[in-house]
Amino acid sequence: MNNQVLFAILLLAPLVGFLINGFRWKSHNATLAGTIATAMVFISFLCSLGLVSQLFGANAVPSVGAKFFDWINVGGLQVPAAFVIDHISAIMVLVVTGVGTLIHLFSVGYMSHDERPAKYFAYLNLFLFNMLLLILGENLLLMFVGWEGVGLCSYLLIGFWFTDADKAAAGMKAFITNRIGDAGFLLGIFTLFFLFGTVSFSEIIARLPNLAEVGWSGPITLACLFLFVGATGKSAQIPLYVWLPDAMAGPTPVSALIHAATMVTAGVYMIVRLNPLFLLAPNALHVVATVGCATAFFAATIGLTQWDIKKILAYSTVSQLGYMFLACGVGAFGAGLFHVMTHAFFKALMFLGSGSVIHAMHEEQDVRKMGGLRKYLPITHATFLIGWLAIIGIPPFAGFFSKDEILWQSFSSPLGNKVLWIFGVATAGLTSFYMTRLMCLTFWGKSRVSKDVHPHEAPAVMWIPLAVLAVLSTVGGWIGIPAVIGGGDNWLERWFEGVIREPSAFGEPIHSHTLEWSAMGISLSLAVIMATLAYTFYVSNPSLPGRLTQKFHGLYRLIYNKYFVDEFYFGSLINPLVDASKGLWAYVDVNFIDRTTYVIGDVVRGVGSTAKSIQNGNMQQYAMYIALGLAVTMFLILR
Amino acid sequence: MPINPAAWKVGLDHYLYLSSLLFVFGMLGVLMRRNVIVILMCIELMLNAVNISFIAFSRYAENVNGQVMVFFVMTIAAAEAAVGLALAVTVFKKFREVNIRFFEHLKG
Amino acid sequence: MGKDGLEITLNIVKMLVIFLVMVQLVPVLVWLERRVSAFMQNRFGPNRVGPLGLIQLLADAVKFLFKEPFFPEKGMAVMYYGAPIMALIPGALALAAIPLGTPFHLEEADWNLFGFIPLGHHPAYDFILQGYDFGVGIVIVLGVSSLGAYSLLMAGWGSSNKYSLLGALRASAQMVSYELALGLSLVGILMVFNTFSFYDIVAQQNPANPLTFNFLGTVHTMPWWIPNWGIFYNPLGALIFFCASFAETNRLPFDLPEAEGELVAGFHTEYGGFALLMFYIGEYGHMMVASALMATFYFGGYTIPYVSNEAVATFVSNTHHFLGAFDLSIHSNWAAFVTSLCFFVSMLVKILFFLLIFIWVRWTLPRFRYDQLMDLGWKTMLPWALFNTCLTAVWLAISHKPV
Amino acid sequence: MLSSQDFLFYFLGALSLIFGLGVVLYRNPIYSALCLVITMISVAGIFATLDAWFIAGVQLIVYAGAVTVLFVMVLMLFDLKHEMKTFSKGVIGNGVKLASSGVLLGMFSTYIWATYATEPTFKPMAAGATSSIKATKDLATSLFTSYLFAFEVIGLLLLVIAVGAVTLSRITGGTHHHAD
């Protein structure tokens, strides 16, 4: 089958799933709706496999594309509805559809007791369709359509149980913050179109000047900054990350799919897609790197003090995203994308694991009421364990290779510098501390489960995806084994060669193997130390953290309340705006605008009543007016 | 008083002065009088004034269109008088008195 | 009014003469009426006062003059006294418009009245036996005769008597509606004669040429003894015209307005003495006009039936010698004067003949009821008049009468 | 000296103006109606001085003979008992009315004076009788050729008016209404 048909099925399958479930949204039959949705996503996974396979093998084709119709054809702007899979989007499409299928399977079990499963699966399929649009889009506008669609679906899914007021508020918050980011993204698209007269990726890259810009005010730097603002909004970086922790209000598979694997990585994917552009704006890359590193460290610190299992994972996602942006910031776009893939695997695994824990604990999310679940949830515990090992970066697992590659690049790349590496390593240490804390509080240690709750193992349909993800978390890392370890060159680098450029223009990276080995050793040892420290804190003698928090009471309260960022936003932006508008309404609207309308109304009525007196039915008066008019006109004419 | 025969020779303007005077008298009547019938009569007066000027111009321009027009004006005037009087009769039947004010009751 | 002083004075004099003729003829007619009605009722009528009661006219006149003029208490003076005057005007004006004889030509000479009062030298002058020759005579006559309605209305309203007002309204309504029929009936004959001027009409009825009808090209000449009169061209029009003229003058079959029991004398109940006489004069004036029109249109006007105009002129000039004895100073115009006199006599005879018919009809036909009157006027006379007009139009188109 | 034509014009003109004013000023409508009659007759006379004899005749028949008779008859039928105020109330209104008619008259006369200051005299008509017949013939021909359509429409209009007047007067109700 030619690519046109494959692409069509790939894209339209989730849409069809959405329509079917959409029209049957009232039905309560979770299994039927679930199977339809999962089948659709699985079909698109198979199609993506078919298409990606064409990139391998003997007659490998650099990229596979299909054009359906001319979407916009106005003057200079030609935007075809065309889709392309090249080496970058191949990885993303496989991850999205693969993890998507697993999560759909998991949510069949998870949403079985919900009263609107069909609606849930319809939204999920719509989300998948939009995500595919975003990834496969051949130009920025299609990506933007996907971008918006994905934002919409995240709002719908976060606020899925909209009857609950603060869940709906969380959905609204997510949507608005995303929209702010989207505004930046849009401005970026406009500047790009203004600069290059086209929105298609390949054409933009083709028309790029070959000299990097210096200073801050260059057009390309400006475009990159705008695009980065879009990315921060979508991928929850420092200024616009506040929506992600609250997004946990949605069902757990949603958090797994949207807020771990796919949507949040859209920002990184966009930057990697436009890496030649970004390479021409070194200052922009510096901004990306610093913001990424700051977000990583900042989010990791908050993760330490959270008690809600999903909040911890949310903050860990934010910090891991920080890592990806750090990688892109230092020019290691390949490493960034590699971490996107591995993070998708183990973060989705952990979220689904927490999902099955919550499912087992009957919607209980507070880790203080858990503990010692190893006995009750053996499979979940095992898979969660693999996820934990992957995230803190233990060698055979995926996390180690991708995170280590990023740390090494931040150290060795011409764009990177020592400070970034130090913070990176510190964040890695913090990550392993709070992840081990999570493991201890939920699975190991004494069981703090309340009497009336009897946790039971998740059903088959839920733990199969967990198992698959666990395997992927272990195997996933091996495709990117760095040259220094695996001998031969890094398969992934060779895979990205055509598409991702090296920041060679800014100087030579450091090539000494010894430094590489030592950096790897430092990060690994720090991770192990922090893990044992956390184990001692929370399992061997649980009272220690309590005493520690008393001593550093101020610092603890600060971190626990998430540095009062939300309150700051409310205080500095939202409330003054609301008060100002109230004031404006009270003073300006009531006094001036209403007053003027009333005055105009009265004036018109006044004029009307005086004019009315002319038409009083007295015919002679009419005759008089005629005579008067005649006289005046005659006078004027004959004067 | 020295009769300057040239001035007294009747020309077109004499007729026009006469017709405008009659017209203004008619107009004053229409504007001032309260009785509907008298108003109708004054309208007839105005129409006659117009007829005079028509015939004067027709005689001056030596063609017969003026007279044709007067012919039509007469028929229209007769028609108008008939309808006007019919209206006046109906008003009289209702109000026992014919006064232009009673037409105010017709206003919307 | 005439081009120069002479003509103006002559016109004024003629108007006076015609007015006086009308006024003087009325007592004769009154007398005639009383005699004829008596004869028809198989009785004698006034024959005590003078031979055949002729002085009776004088007695009546004197009686009317000495009646006490009486003015109704709440009556409106202007209306009351204006009405009888208004009654006279239309009759006189209409009579002035009708030619009573052929015009005769006066050579240029210096005139002197009765041979010894010098009137001064005057150029040739065509003296027409007519008040004033309006070009479109008939239209003026109809116009003026329609003014008659005002005298009735003024009389009715002025005498502030409810019944006289009712009578006046009825009479004027009748006059207005029959005027319509009158006017339309004449249209037929006017189409035949193709002119408005009385002289042309009478000239076309010249007995010299016999009555001829051409029908689709073929010309049929009637036997000599049928005179070349208008009535044969348009008999229906003549009939309608004659009947309508009865209504116009409120003569008997149509004299309903003053005939009801309570209406007594209709609009002139409150009048006595000479005012009443003036109303009679007005009425008889209208009758004279009607009969004069009848004569002019349908009976050849002042032409003598079987004698052509030229024959009369030659006859007079032949007899001129015989009459030469009275050598009047204007003898040179003598012949023309005598011929026009002859024609005047024939016109007078015709008019008297029709007046006789008026009187005759008065004492034979019963009176119409008011609604019959109105129906006759609107529903029979008018349609027939229209029909007659169309008929003559078609007939003229067929007969290609040389226009 | 004045020719008879001019004298006639001045006499009839004065007559029509005086009685025209009478129509407006007489308190009793009957008197104003009679003044109207005299005005109509004098206007007919004026037409005669303008050698439009046929129109003069028609004026006599139509206006003097029918329309004004209608007015007089209707006025007599009304038989207004109480005499009402003849002129409409409102001093300002009347003031404006008078002013505007004054201005209008002024305008008419100045305009006439301005355009016809050169004493346009009438070309002499052909001799008395015959010309008026020819004029009537011309009037008839033009009426029935170039203005035939207007003539037919006028006929139709009169029919409509007749029907209208009848229906208007048949409107029941009002004082004389008796339930039949």
Detail the topology: elements first, then pairings.
The complex is a heterotetramer of chains A (639), B (108), C (403) and D (180).
Chain A: H1 3-23, H2 30-53, E1 64-74, E2 77-85, H3 87-110, H4 117-136, H5 140-158, H6 165-196, H7 201-206, H8 219-235, H9 243-246, H10 252-261, H11 266-273, H12 275-279, H13 282-304, H14 309-329, H15 333-360, H16 378-392, H17 398-412, H18 418-442, H19 460-475, H20 483-486, H21 491-496, H22 513-540, H23 543-551, H24 553-560, H25 565-612, H26 619-638
Helix pairs in contact in A: 1-2, 1-4, 2-3, 2-4, 3-4, 3-10, 3-15, 3-19, 4-5, 5-6, 6-8, 8-11, 8-13, 10-15, 11-15, 13-14, 13-18, 14-15, 14-17, 14-18, 15-16, 15-17, 15-19, 16-18, 16-19, 17-18, 17-22, 18-22, 23-24
Chain B: H1 5-8, H2 12-32, H3 36-61, H4 65-95
Helix pairs in contact in B: 2-3, 3-4
Chain D: H1 4-25, H2 29-49, H3 53-78, H4 91-115, H5 128-144, H6 148-169
Helix pairs in contact in D: 1-2, 2-3
What does this structure look like?
The complex is a heterotetramer of chains A (639), B (108), C (403) and D (180). Chain A is mainly α. Chain A has 2 domains: 139-553, no CATH class; 566-638. Helices cover 71% and strands 3% of the residues of chain A. Chain A contains 26 helices and 2 strands. In chain A, β1 (64-74) and β2 form a beta hairpin. Chain A is globular, with a radius of gyration of 30 Å. In chain A, 50% of the residues are buried. Chain B has 108 residues and is mainly alpha-helical. Chain B has helices spanning 5-8, 12-32, 36-61, 65-95. In chain B, α2 (12-32) packs antiparallel against α3 and α3 runs antiparallel to α4. The longest helix of chain B is centred in the last third of the chain and has 31 residues, at 65-95. With 403 residues, chain C is mainly α. Chain C has one domain (60-399). Helices cover 60% and strands 6% of the residues of chain C. The longest helix of chain C is centred in the first third of the chain and has 36 residues, at 5-40. The two termini of chain C are 32 Å apart. Chains in contact: A-B, A-D, B-D, C-D. At the B-D interface, α1, α2, α3 and α4 of B face α1, α2, α3, α4 and α5 of D.
